[in-house]
Amino acid sequence: MDLVDNYSRLLIRYPATSALDTNTERAIQRCLEELCTTRTSVVVAHRLSTVVNVDCILVLDKGRIIERGR
After folding, report:
1. Is residue 2 part of a domain?
2. What letter would DSSP give residue 23?
3. InterPro entries, alphabetically (predicted)?
């Protein structure tokens, strides 16, 4: 679940879309992308499609960064 207010500069996104069909996920992603244009967004994702348009991807394993890329 995401929580956004008008004053927050940080948005933390947990994979609430992982159980959705792809069309619904895309619609939610478009809305969230608009919200993130003026905020820093941290996304926890299980699908690559969730992080296609991000600036940086970190892959974690047991709390450690094992890969980093764009």
Report:
1. no
2. H
3. P-loop_NTPase (IPR027417), Type_1_exporter (IPR039421)
